[in-house]
Write a sequence for this structure.
């Protein structure tokens, strides 16, 4: 629990505007409640532009189900922002009622495997976010131990920026940064072990935390969705290149191979890419929420 004094003095805290949701106050709900309606969006150029996956079909894809599952599974480690799953009929199954939080202006990323921006940084410095790593690692290598690699929350039109732990301390204070690091790595460890029992590698994931009205650090936004995480097929894992994945990497790869310059208006996603992405998202949800073990 962080004291009100900390909240008043913390540098850079702000009321979070959810990037993948819309905040609605519907009907006679209490004003302190927010109905968060999930919109399945994937960054096009890793800035603020988005593809809405599936368009009207999205009503059949219930992103909230994935987050709700993980919020419940991880609630013994940290409280979450959900107040109720009883929502207006038009958004039933893809929305939740949550309490407002003062969000920390850093994204809390845990990496158990080297890939993505971490791999790019490692190739240049043999480190990620200031954390030195062994020589000889490859794209997709398992790290000796999971690492905490925070990032700044980008404004619209800008890239998120990986930062060292010391920079996170400057932004939110050493006490808060230490708490978030401990929580992030604990959440990742529990989620990773669960996913592996289903034959899935949780390579990395991003959490966002805030402070509730009592000063309690609380998990908000989304949790362990294919948007915020990399999920790999454990049976096909082989360091040294791209992995068989169940996440937004499929769209990223298509964009990177499309010839787009990332400056001009982005190309329209072909329908087959949209549909395959939806199927990947639905498949990973089915695997992880199944009662069967790998």
């Amino acid at each position: 629990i962080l004291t009100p004094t900390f909240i008043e003095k913390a540098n850079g805290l702000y009321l979070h505007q959810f990037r993948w949701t819309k905040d609605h106050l519907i009907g006679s709900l209490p004003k302190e409640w927010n109905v968060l309606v999930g919109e399945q969006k994937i960054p096009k150029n890793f800035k603020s532009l988005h593809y809405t996956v599936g368009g009207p079909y999205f009503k059949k894809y219930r992103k909230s189900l994935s987050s709700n599952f993980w919020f419940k599974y991880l609630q013994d480690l940290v409280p979450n922002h959900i107040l109720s799953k009883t929502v207006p009929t038009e958004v039933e199954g893809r929305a939740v009622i949550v309490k407002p939080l003062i969000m920390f202006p850093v994204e809390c990323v845990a990496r158990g495997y080297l890939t993505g921006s971490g791999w790019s940084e490692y190739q240049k410095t043999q480190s990620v976010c200031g954390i030195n790593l062994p020589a000889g690692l490859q794209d997709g290598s398992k790290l000796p131990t999971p690492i905490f690699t925070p990032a700044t929350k980008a404004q619209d039109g800008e890239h998120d920026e990986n930062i060292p732990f010391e920079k996170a301390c400057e932004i939110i204070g050493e006490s808060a940064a230490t708490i978030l690091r401990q929580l992030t790595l604990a959440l990742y460890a529990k989620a990773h072990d669960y996913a592996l029992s289903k034959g899935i590698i949780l390579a990395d994931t991003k959490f966002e935390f805030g402070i509730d009205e009592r000063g309690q650090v609380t998990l908000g936004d989304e949790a362990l969705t294919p948007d915020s995480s990399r999920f790999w097929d454990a049976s096909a894992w082989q360091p040294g290149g791209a992995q068989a994945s169940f996440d937004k990497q499929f769209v990223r790869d298509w964009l990177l191979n499309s010839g787009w310059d990332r400056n001009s208006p982005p190309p329209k996603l072909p329908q087959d890419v949209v549909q395959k992405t939806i199927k990947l998202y639905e498949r990973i949800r089915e695997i992880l929420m199944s009662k069967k073990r790998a």
